[in-house]
Amino acid sequence: MEKVLFVGGRRGLGAQVFKLWQTRFPKHSLAISSRRAMASASLMSIKSDLSQQDDREKLLQFVREYKPTRVFYFAGGGPYGAFADKEWKDHLWALQVSLLAPMELVHHCMKLPEVKQMVVVGSAVAESKADPNAASYCASKHGLLGLISTLNRETTTKDIRLFSPGYMATEMLPASARADKKVSDPQFVAIDFVNWVLDKEASWHRLYPPD
Ligand SMILES: NC(=O)c1ccc[n+]([C@@H]2O[C@H](COP(=O)([O-])OP(=O)(O)OC[C@H]3O[C@@H](n4cnc5c(N)ncnc54)[C@H](OP(=O)(O)O)[C@@H]3O)[C@@H](O)[C@H]2O)c1
Predict the structure, then answer these.
(1) What distance in Å separates the CA atoms of residue 69 and residue 80, rounded to the nearest whole number?
(2) How confident is the model at residue 103 (pLDDT cuts 50, 70, 90)?
(3) What is the pLDDT of residues 7-62, one digit of tens each?
(4) Edge to edge, what strands does the sheet with 3-7 contain?
(5) In a mutational test of the pocket of ligand 1, which residue from 6, 47, 74, 176 has the highest number of ligand atoms less than 8 Å from its CB?
């Protein structure tokens, strides 16, 4: 029986992938992790703020008990502005939510036999080149690329992947920042994500839009 955990599945790209998965696989057991409580009889949910140590522990505990077969990590973000103008705590928040929490979750899941696939969301823009005014976010996404590429050289026993979208029309990208960019509808990005994770022969790294 497939059990899928969506970390950050309440809104944005995570919510689009969640909805699509629910439609395509109504018999799968699905769980969402979010900072907000999500009350629903048909849904497992865990309230977890990934910038907080206790909540990260709670999520790991949930994973041990729920025993998902797939784990998708969508959460991410960071302060926008010149590096030195932002407080250190804001950079720490970005690193914690966008790099360290997914890294810890992957580390944890690699030891759990039930988890067959882990997919983390990176960024086509921020993971491979400079992203002015988003230094800690950019450092986190570069870190994810380093992590997932390395794990794919170290191990073949788990399916560990990185999905790297370009700009998307979600709350993360305010309307005022979309004007000069090619921005994708997250509904279409979600279709690509789902088709790719289901393709057993696909590469561990997917850029959207594809090259
Ligand atoms: N939008 C873009 O242009 C773009 C481009 C490239 C990559 N990405 C990446 O795509 C992923 C999804 O982003 P999105 O565009 O869908 O943005 P979004 O709509 O702003 O969603 C952000 C997600 O992160 C979660 N999150 C934020 N802070 C959290 C915290 N402290 N603890 C737990 N969860 C937290 C939110 O969950 P709750 O609010 O429910 O807690 C939400 O699910 C991110 O990794 C982002 O870096 C986005």
Answers:
(1) 35
(2) very high
(3) 999 999 999 999 999 999 999 999 999 999 887 877 899 999 999 999 999 999 99
(4) 44-47, 29-34, 3-7, 70-73, 117-121, 159-165, 205-208
(5) 74
The ligand 1 atom nearest the CA atom of 15 = 43
Average pLDDT over residues 145-151: 98
Largest CA distance in the chain: 49
Give the residues surrounding ligand 1 with Cβ less than 6 Å away.
8, 10-14, 34-36, 49-51, 74-77, 97, 121, 123, 165, 167-168, 170-173
3-state secondary structure of 112: coil
Ligand 1 center to 11 CA (angstroms): 8
Condensed to tens digits (0 to 9), the pLDDT of residues 107-145 reads 999 999 999 999 999 999 999 999 999 999 999 999 999
As a whole number of angstroms, the distance between CA 191 and CA 183 comes to 16
Write out the two tokens for 119. Answer: 């997919």
CA of 7 to the centre of ligand 1 (A): 10
Beta strand extents in the chain (DSSP E only): 3-7, 29-34, 44-47, 70-73, 117-121, 159-165, 205-208
The structure tokens listed for 29 are 């057991």
